[in-house]
Amino acid sequence: MSDAPTLPQFAAIVVAAGKGLRAGGELPKQFRKFRGKPLIRHSVEVLAAAGADPIEVVLAEGTRELAKEALAGLGGIEFVGGGTTRQESVANGLEALVPHSPKTVLIHDAARPDLPKEAIRRLLEALKDHPGAIPALPVVDSLAVAGDGDVMAGKADREALRRVQTPQAFRYTEILAAHRAWDGAKNAGDDAQVLTENGGNIALVQGDERLKKITVAEDFMTAHSAPFRVGQGFDVHRLVEGEELWLCGVQIPHDKGLSGHSDADVALHAITDAVLGAIGDGDIGTHFPPSDPQWAGARSAQFLEHAVKLAGEAGFALGNIDLTLICEAPKIGPHRAAMRTALGAMTGLEENAISIKATTTERLGFTGRGEGIAAQAIISLYASA
Ligand code: MG
């Protein structure tokens, strides 16, 4: 396998001068933690690793210390003061590059943390034939033109439209000249517009959905922790005569039943512990202590329902359940369908996301001797905020 060709030399400007109020929180959003590190650091790390040098980071007044901390240890970084508009901020970044006289420059937003290296490569490649190149994606939804009173006034042809992302790539001398020629009283949507109005053409290069801009608090909530979680649970109850046998909220006819403080539904206890484990919120004993008389004989369905509700409050929805019951008897197969239906009702999961398996232990150990039933469960959660 041959090494990928190295990228041509390029400089970068990362615009981080926004106040970021839409994303909520006290810090400007570009300095808030996103997947464990400041939002701005994600794309700057990629740019630095791709060879961008220098990287002009354009900052709002009073944020230099925050930026130094957020980007500590990265090479080739220079800080520039921002302007009152985005195009002024970019112009400041371009002027700061004058002593470096780079051939090409990538202009990026700090609020787009996922920056695939292939996107950088496609943009720089397109600059061989064009003075500018921007990542663009097709529009998949149909488009309506809003008229007075929010009434549909017409439709737009989505085939002719593209969604534009950053980074935008330019030959340096041409974008610098275009910015210097720009009428400062006019608001530019982006740097591609600045170049086209100065006569430069722009290549539309295949964009990437991962270049999504982080704009609202929900984006941070979703990304605050890993978007997926897993949890596992294990439980055992003793089989005794004179007790009812409940598994997954279904009563099973058998000559013995499970003993315990609640209805002793060993399957639901394992699943409940798995859900609580995935959100790091204790275990079934923490939330429903056996010492509390209100849980005597309780239906275990309410334990699982409560755990799913806690997961929802933590920003997660249940993805799937994989349960294994370990016993010699009763046979689980004849009751599997009813158990899946019951679990679906408790959790809101589709039945194809609920697996109930059963095994024996070849007559070995306490399950083999029929002294008890063991259950183990693995579940997944996904960020639902
Ligand atoms: Mg238990």
Which features would summarize this protein structure in a list?
385 residues, 8-stranded mixed sheet, 5-stranded mixed sheet, 12 helices, elongated, binds magnesium ion
Task: Write up this protein.
The protein has twelve helices and 19 strands. It is an alpha/beta fold. The strands form five sheets. Strands 1, 4, 5, 6, 7, 10, 11 and 12 form an eight-stranded mixed β-sheet that branches. Strand 8 and strand 9 form a beta hairpin. Helix 5 crosses helix 6 (191-197) and helix 8 (266-278) runs parallel beside helix 10. It is elongated, with a radius of gyration of 29 Å. The chain starts with 10 loop residues before the first strand and ends with a strand. The mean pLDDT is 91. The chain binds magnesium ion.
Our measurement of the CA-to-CA distance between the termini, rounded to an integer number of angstroms, reads: 42 Å
What ligands are attached or bound here?
magnesium ion
Rg is 29 Å
The low-confidence parts are none
Structural class: alpha/beta
Helical segment count: 12
Apparent shape: elongated
Question: What can be said about the biggest beta sheet?
Answer: 8 strands, mixed
Strand content: 25-35%
In total, how many beta strands?
Answer: 19
Average residue pLDDT: 91
Quaternary state of this entry equals single chain
Helix content: 25-40%
